[in-house]
Amino acid sequence: MEAEDSTKEPEKPLGDAAPAVAEGKGDTTRVAEEVEATGTGEEDELLAGIEKQMLDYDNTIGLIQEGIETIEKTFPDLASEKADDDAQYDELSVYVGQVDYNASAEELQAHFSHCGQVVRVTILGNAYRQPKGSAYVQFETKEAAQRALLLHDSTFKGRKIQVMKKRINVPAVQRGGGGFRGRGRGRGRGR
């Protein structure tokens, strides 16, 4: 025969909901409400404060979502239109590397004119507006841009130029984060 443990607290009945829950029917929220009602006054105040904060957060989230909807209605597809335009211009443009530093936009336009109608020539420069030795040439059609790629390794002002398809610019926000850099040896006091 087993000895009963006298240190055990007697089980408290959970009210009318306990038999229904034990049988698998009934509302478990009613049981939870009855258990919560047995808490101390300090716990009830803390719980009420947390519930108030949650309501405030819900209201703030609702206001933010309404603001976002208003902005989307006011400026529909503004960002996507710009991205589409940029992608279209990237298909019409070629990158030209190893350009002579004394070359002008007009000379580059004349060099690429037999490929098709040149819309714009942009010679890249540094902060002091000195040429970097590269340029972008934008054409009217994709076919003209494709023909311009055939001028890769052609000679322009005594230099072999590199003509490549303009790469699509991906902003840093969309590219993803940088890789993990270890913080081991080599940092600190020269050790």
TrEMBL record:
User: Which residue ranges does the record assign to the RRM domain?
Assistant: 92-168
Q: Do you know which Pfam families this protein is assigned to?
A: RRM_1
Known Gene3D superfamilies for this protein?
A: 3.30.70.330
SUPFAM superfamilies the record matches = RNA-binding domain, RBD
| Family matches, as InterPro entries | Nucleotide-bd_a/b_plait_sf, RBD_domain_sf, RRM_dom
Question: Where is region (Disordered) located?
Answer: 1-29
Bias-annotated ranges (Basic and acidic residues): 1-14
Q: Which PROSITE patterns match?
A: RRM
Q: What is this protein called?
A: RRM domain-containing protein
The lineage's top-level taxon is Eukaryota
MF terms from GO for this chain are: poly(A) binding
- Which keywords label this protein? RNA-binding
